[in-house]
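in:
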């Protein structure tokens, strides 16, 4: 049998984690806090049905939906991005600054194709989004972890590692970070944009959760402080519309978007026009605002139930992040508890989570006491049942 490319081995460890995440979501008897899916109740099934039934006819947008499309995306969806998603964040964008992609994951893939050479360094948060690491490793980049605290990336450590490693890129999820649920402070957002400009490093700002805010004060994106075009802002429609639509977008300078266009044509030509039209009509018909309020209400309740369960059911010796939005909280148990070893006991009790070590690219053994818990895809009643199961497993191990 022909040998696989060497780069496949580079990303095997992170690929194994991703496989486990998807497989943990398939057992109907297990209450899984492992995945990152939004609530089933948050999916606009009926609205999408009505839109599709109306527009997918030969005399409306049916021909457009089933034909090839422009690699940048259909105009009215890009207009929705500039006017309804970017402008409220304080970001001024023209149509030529936006390109529609096949889900937020593809944004990172396209940017990696555009910039990364084998051996290049990418600075990431510790912990970080494991699927991003998988992509960077697929392009044979070396991921170096930067220190974080409750206010996000520690700027002094980022700058020190920029000087030491001369990275091509800094990857950051500044708002309701996956996996930690933390949010980067305003001062550090400004500082990250300035570092990108000063050292000519790409700041890849991944922002899939910021619309899902349940408490606290909105913060402007890192991109809003970018004066040189070194920050690339990427986002997804997965949490605010539909994960299955596989839609996202890139916002960057026209020069970068032109190059991403070329990479996109060599990758898959364009995102699904059918999905784009349905999503665009969703915005065109004024359905987004009420839908966003609804999904925030649903997930706020789940966040509150989860944090109440953690406070009441888990030992006082644990630490947990209280997220102002998004889908995750981060729990640190006493150092004596290994959450990787604990997972087998949890699965036997039909409850799942993701061990914390899987989200670190360095020094993983010192984070064996951590776990990521996702509350988004679990009904409030099941959150209580699942946390009772998990609490019993943790207390037994302690």
């Amino acid at each position: 049998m022909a040998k696989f490319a060497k780069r496949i081995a580079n990303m095997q460890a992170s690929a194994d984690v991703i496989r486990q995440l998807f497989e943990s979501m398939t057992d109907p008897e297990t209450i899984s806090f492992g995945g990152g899916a939004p609530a089933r109740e948050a999916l606009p099934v009926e609205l999408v049905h009505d839109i599709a039934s109306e527009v997918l006819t030969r005399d409306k947008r049916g021909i457009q939906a089933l034909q090839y499309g422009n690699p940048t995306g259909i105009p009215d969806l890009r207009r929705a991005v500039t006017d309804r998603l970017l402008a409220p964040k304080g970001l001024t964008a023209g149509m030529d600054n936006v390109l529609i992609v096949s889900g937020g994951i593809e944004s990172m893939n396209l940017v990696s194709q555009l910039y990364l050479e084998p051996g290049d360094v990418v600075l990431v948060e510790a912990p970080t989004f494991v699927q991003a690491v998988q992509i960077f490793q697929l392009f044979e980049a070396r991921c170096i972890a930067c220190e974080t605290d409750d206010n996000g990336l520690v700027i002094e450590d980022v700058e020190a590692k920029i000087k030491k490693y001369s990275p091509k890129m800094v990857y950051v999820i500044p708002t309701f970070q996956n996996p930690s649920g933390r949010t980067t402070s305003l001062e550090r957002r400004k500082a990250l944009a300035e570092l990108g400009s000063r050292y000519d490093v790409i700041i890849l700002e991944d922002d899939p959760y910021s619309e899902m805010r349940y408490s606290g004060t909105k913060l402007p994106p890192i991109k809003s402080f970018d004066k040189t075009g070194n920050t690339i802002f990427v986002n997804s429609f997965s949490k605010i519309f539909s994960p299955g639509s596989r839609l996202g977008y890139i916002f960057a300078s026209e020069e970068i978007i032109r190059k991403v266009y070329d990479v996109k044509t060599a990758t898959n030509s364009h995102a699904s026009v059918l999905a784009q039209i349905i999503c665009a009509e969703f915005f065109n018909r004024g359905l987004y605002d009420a839908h966003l309020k609804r999904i925030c209400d649903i997930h706020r309740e789940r966040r509150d139930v989860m944090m109440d369960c953690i406070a009441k059911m888990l030992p006082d010796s644990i630490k947990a992040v209280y997220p102002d939005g998004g889908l995750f909280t981060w729990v640190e148990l006493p150092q004596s508890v290994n959450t990787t070893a604990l997972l087998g006991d949890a699965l036997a009790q039909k409850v799942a989570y993701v061990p914390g070590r899987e989200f670190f690219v360095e020094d993983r053994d010192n984070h064996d006491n951590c776990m990521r818990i996702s509350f988004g895809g679990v009904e409030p009643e099941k959150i209580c049942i699942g946390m009772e199961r998990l609490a019993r497993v943790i207390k037994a191990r302690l």
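note: The mean pLDDT is 94.
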